[in-house]
Amino acid sequence: MKYSRDLTEEGIDESKTCKTQAHHVRNHYKNSREVGHAIKGMKVGAAVSYLEAVLEFKDAIPFKRHTGGCGRKAMGKQRKVSGSHVGFPVKTCQIYLDLLTNLKANAEAKGLDVDSLVLRHVSTQRAPKTRRRCFRAHGRIAPFMASNAHMSIIAVDEASIVPKAKKTFTANPDRITLAKARTNKRIRVGGGLEASETPAIEA
């Protein structure tokens, strides 16, 4: 399976990156998305410490997109989460810890410094659902599906990250703004004729 992002297009050297991914993981997609979004941008060591704290219920994962049915905890104020929607997806955190362990092994194999790696790209995608059957009353059969997920992580050496260039804006003197256009269309009080333009009335 291909990675969903190519960091070489952003000017990052391939030798300064390490990757890991997992396919068709038997885990809820929505939980996987929220955990991946929470650790994105962290260093590898900080992400491991954070996930281990969640497993011990000392910290929480903020739920920002998939908030339906998510409880509210006072711990959400520490993460400044809207509505205090946080959770403790233990199984998902353990899967991400396994991925980070594999990521560190890949980094050491490439000769990279694990302490300087930053999680630049964390992607979670829906996998094909696994179908089971639930036998209901009166001989009916209902679907019993599992929402699996694909996960991928790309870490980059912090020293190789290229900073974004500042956007420079140059004003165009010939450009007519919306406010100027409205002013030009506005009709003056009194018919819009000057005193000198008023036609003379013959006696």
Word description of this protein:
This protein has 203 residues and is an alpha+beta fold. It is 25% helix and 22% strand. A three-stranded antiparallel sheet has the order 1-7-4. Strands 2-3 form a two-stranded antiparallel sheet. A two-stranded antiparallel sheet has the order 5-6. It is extended. The chain starts with 16 loop residues before the first strand and ends in an 18-residue tail after the last helix. The model has no long low-confidence stretch (mean pLDDT 87).
Task: Give the topology.
Layout: E1 17-25, H1 29-39, H2 44-55, E2 61-62, E3 86-87, H3 90-109, E4 117-126, E5 130-135, E6 141-146, E7 149-157, H4 178-185
Antiparallel strand pairs: 1-7, 2-3, 4-7, 5-6
Helix pairs in contact: 2-3
Q: What is the C-alpha radius of gyration, as a whole number of Å?
A: 29 Å
- N-C termini distance: 94 Å
Main sheet record: 3 strands, antiparallel
Please state roughly what percent of the residues sit in beta strands, choosing from under 5%, 5-15%, 15-25%, 25-35%, 35-45% or over 45%. Answer: 15-25%
Structural class: alpha+beta
Please tell me what the overall shape is.
Answer: extended
Q: What is the mean predicted local confidence, pLDDT?
A: 87
SS elements, strand count = 7
Percent helix range? 25-40%
Spatial strand order of the main sheet? 1-7-4
Number of alpha- plus pi-helical segments: 4
H/E order of the elements?
Answer: EHHEEHEEEEH
| Low-confidence runs of at least 5 consecutive residues | none
